Amino acid sequence: MRAILCSKFEGADALELGEAPEPPPAADEVLIEVHAAAVSFMDKLMAEGGYQLKPELPYVPGTDAAGIVLEVGSEVTNFKPGDRVVGQMWHGSYAERAVTKHWKCAKVPESVEFTVACTVLHNYMTAYHALVQRCALKPGETLMVTGAKGGVGLAAVDMGRMLGARVLAGTGDVAKMSVLQDLGADAVVNMRKGDLREQIKELTGGHGLDVCFEMVGGDTFVKLARSMRWGGRITPIGFVSGDIPKLPMNLPLLKGFSVVGVFEGAWAEKFPDEATEAADKIMSWIAEGELQPLIDRVLPLEQAAEAFQALQEREVIGRIVLQV
Questions:
Q1: What is the number of domains present in the chain?
Q2: pLDDT digits (tens, 9 = 90+) for 126-149
Q3: Rounded to whole angstroms, how far apart are CA atoms 231 and 242?
Q4: 203 and 183 in contact (C-beta within 8 Å)?
């Protein structure tokens, strides 16, 4: 089968179109004929050797695939050949065929295109797990999302809007601020200009943040921790800056807020029934127009390296999709 192969942990420079053996489904897996695959920052980081999981080389990148079920394992009862599905995996979606665990799949309604469906699970499952399950975001609360113009950040902005929160979207890209407001942010915070804490203080009337969906890390995380209100919840989603923060523990003690861990992948592994229910709920919200995933562009499979380059240059708003 045609597939993008990563032969070295050198990112875009190590990607090439080649041939890979078709993966057989295990007893608890489904084999998907891939129509579309989303490109994520996690894919790029893994191909550079910077992710905690390092596959054996060469490997096929890609965490999200949407298409048609071709075959199911002997233990799979909730899917059958011919079903329209989207599935998550650690890697393997940049190919004509991909396998994944049945509990990491969701059925795709007829009204949802594969190019949209493939962008959903990683982004919106992370947002759902963080905002609904871990932080119990309530209508009227103030939510701050950093890294808001990326795929996961936009999903958090979209989910927060749907849940009735007042959403502050943080970005360092001034040119993209109006886009974030168009997508539902109540206000946009310039992460590269001005005093971050003062901006939040002004936007919240001095009350601070109820929930912070934080993806930058480093000093930004500490500044935002100082901007939490009593009873608030701050979630370390990722560390795009490359700097894992060290938080003075007197801050949550004195300010009465919680640091809430969020690792959607591990949660889905430990609680597959909950994950399946959440995925189906998210797909129904998208079919009903309650959630609106944003696609930056659609490229042919062989341009995967170009997609990585666009991520590197921070040109992307939402998700790039590879058409397989």
A1: 2
A2: 999 999 999 999 999 999 999 888
A3: 28
A4: no
